[in-house]
Amino acid sequence: MPTFYDRFVECVEHWPKNVALEIQRRDQVENCTYAELRHMAESVGSWLAKNGLHSGARVVILADNHPRWVAVFLGVVASGCTAVPLDTALHADQITTLLKDSASSLLFCDVKHLATAREAIGLRSLIRPSSRLHRIKLNPIQLRPPPWLSLTASLPRARAASNLRQ
């Protein structure tokens, strides 16, 4: 039986240049084609695999509705990992509980929710905000993200944050 990601790939093969995602901003419409979305998703999936996140590893996504959120979700699914999307209205203590309960290994978040994510894992000033998604490894290792997901200049391409499985 085809997976969700298999069905997505079928759409990409049929309509690679068609718009897959569109989001209205104040002064413009931002969109992404099926081919672009697949490229972003597969770069996330490849990055996850190269950095030791095995099939079944849980990856949290804490971000507003945006094409990058969808790319991260699809990349997590494509890699065989399990996506754990969190409600952006959650408080830090609730996120801490969910991170521990889900035994998640990685957290992707956008700049809007970065302070809450930091608080949830006990960080105060590890990452300077940027306009892109951030990822925080919840187990100590060095990581390098896909270039389009480049997160911050202050974080030498991701640094260990905290081990929540204590």
Helix content: 25-40%
The CATH architecture designation is 3-Layer(aba) Sandwich
How are helices and strands ordered from N to C? HEEHEHEHEHE
CATH class placement: Alpha Beta
Question: Radius of gyration, rounded?
Answer: 16 Å
Count of extended strands: 6
Question: How many discrete domains?
Answer: 1
If you had to describe this structure to a student in words, what would you say it looks like?
There is one protein chain. The protein is of the alpha/beta class. It has a single domain (4-149), classed as Rossmann fold. Helices cover 36% and strands 17% of the residues. It has five helices and six strands, in the order H-E-E-H-E-H-E-H-E-H-E. It has helices at 4-14, 34-50, 67-78, 92-102, 114-121; strands spanning 19-24, 29-33, 58-62, 82-85, 106-109, 134-137. Strands 4-3-5-6 form a four-stranded mixed sheet, covered by helices on one side. The protein has a two-stranded antiparallel sheet with strand order 1-2. Helix 2 packs across helix 3 (67-78). The longest helix is centred in the N-terminal third of the chain and has 17 residues, at 34-50. The radius of gyration is 16 Å and the shape is globular. The N and C termini lie far apart (38 Å). Mean pLDDT is 77; it is low at 124-131 and 139-166.
